[in-house]
């Protein structure tokens, strides 16, 4: 087992560091000689896409959080309303699924029982089912109409990291391919996004250099009972994943909040010394995030911000700032989650937790 950790203390940190390669493989396996996305096996025609009037993205756990980011990409490029739901909720909510519905499932293992039962139900109602899976030949991959595999490689740590970032890459590729096919994005936009996507693996490697800074910050969080994560839009989805990660492995209570909702209740929880992790990568929401930062700072929060390197203004209202490279808003989640994964890892390590096998959790949950 030590050998397969390749010198790392835990599988989780090894897998965090595998993300440049995992995102690169996921993308490059699906690019042709002209640098265009090839999804020939996902043979949904323009006529079928024109008929699809609703899209559900359904998953559990971290894959659900990736699906929240996926919604932003699919709505942006395909111009169809998307609902992202938790499989165990969706299954019993009597959803409006028919032959004009596309259901996109995301699952690292491809064996999660709740997600699998959604698949069967959706197919029985005539929907087209496309899955994003990591394990080749898994039940979800086999039973779906179409599958796009992520090329994350085996993920051993219970807390998912590289599966999440590669799932986001997969969602963006699907959205770009379908958008081009349907005519809801231009060829020029499509090629520009692919060019940006190709930069992502190196940018992930760049963000990983924040490790020492994160180690320092983790020391401030080790004794805290509650940690809050704030964001708007896509950043709110990333905040959800950051909070889940730290809960899973460090057993610290954490919650993600939509920053605009703070004033409707949550701000009552903010007092001296409470850590608040603020994601501020979405340019059109940046000013609003700045004012949320100021609100929590004024109440004594320890504000830790994650933003793009061009947004130096955050320093005035933050105790610590972690910078990521400048990137299109839709891609930002792949980079901004990296410090959150590292933070969860180092807080758990400081607390002496069993990082790769957290209590009560299983890598794959095959019972409903
Ligand atoms: C379990 C794991 C989570 C994972 C979830 C969904 O709860 O502990 O890390 O996100 O299942 O798994 P899947 O294999 O469907 O992505």
UniProtKB/TrEMBL annotation:
Residues 45-184, 217-358 form the SIS domain. The keyword Transferase applies. One of its GO terms (molecular function) is glutamine-fructose-6-phosphate transaminase (isomerizing) activity. It is found in: Cytoplasm. It is an enzyme of class 2 (transferase). It catalyses: D-fructose 6-phosphate + L-glutamine = D-glucosamine 6-phosphate + L-glutamate. Keywords: Aminotransferase, Cytoplasm, Glutamine amidotransferase, Repeat, Transferase. Homodimer. Catalyzes the first step in hexosamine metabolism, converting fructose-6P into glucosamine-6P using glutamine as a nitrogen source. This is Glutamine--fructose-6-phosphate aminotransferase [isomerizing]. The gene is glmS.
């Amino acid at each position: 087992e030590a050998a397969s950790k390749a010198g790392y203390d835990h599988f989780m940190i090894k897998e965090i560091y595998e993300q440049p390669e995992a995102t690169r493989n996921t993308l490059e396996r699906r690019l042709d000689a002209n640098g265009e996305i090839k999804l020939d096996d996902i043979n949904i025609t323009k006529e079928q896409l024109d008929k699809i009037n609703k899209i559900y993205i359904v998953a559990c756990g971290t894959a659900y959080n990736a699906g929240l980011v996926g919604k932003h990409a699919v709505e942006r490029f395909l111009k169809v309303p998307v609902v992202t739901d938790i499989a165990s909720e969706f299954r019993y909510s009597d959803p409006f699924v028919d032959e004009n519905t596309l259901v996109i499932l995301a699952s690292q293992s491809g064996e999660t029982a709740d997600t699998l039962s959604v698949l069967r139900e959706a197919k029985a109602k005539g929907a087209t089912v496309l899955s994003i899976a990591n394990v080749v030949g898994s039940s979800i991959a086999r039973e779906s109409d179409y599958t796009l595999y992520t090329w994350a490689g085996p993920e051993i740590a219970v807390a998912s990291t590289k599966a999440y970032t590669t799932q986001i890459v997969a969602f963006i590729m699907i959205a770009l391919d379908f958008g081009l096919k349907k005519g809801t994005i231009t060829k020029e936009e499509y090629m520009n996004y692919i060019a940006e996507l190709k930069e992502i693996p190196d940018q992930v490697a760049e963000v990983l250099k924040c490790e020492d800074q994160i180690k320092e910050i983790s020391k401030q969080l080790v004794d805290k009972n509650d940690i809050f994560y704030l964001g708007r839009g896509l950043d709110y989805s990333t905040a959800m994943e950051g909070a889940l990660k730290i809960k899973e492995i460090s057993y610290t209570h954490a919650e993600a909040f939509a920053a605009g909702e703070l004033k409707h209740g949550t701000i009552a929880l903010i007092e001296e010394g409470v850590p608040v992790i603020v994601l501020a990568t979405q340019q059109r929401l940046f000013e609003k995030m700045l004012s949320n930062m100021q609100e929590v700072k004024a109440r004594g929060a320890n504000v830790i911000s994650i933003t793009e390197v061009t947004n130096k203004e955050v320093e005035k209202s933050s105790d610590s700032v972690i910078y990521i490279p400048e990137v299109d808003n839709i891609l930002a989640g792949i980079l901004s989650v990296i410090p959150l994964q590292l933070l969860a890892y180092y807080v758990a390590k400081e607390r002496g937790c069993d990082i790769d096998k957290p209590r009560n959790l299983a890598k794959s949950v095959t019972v409903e």
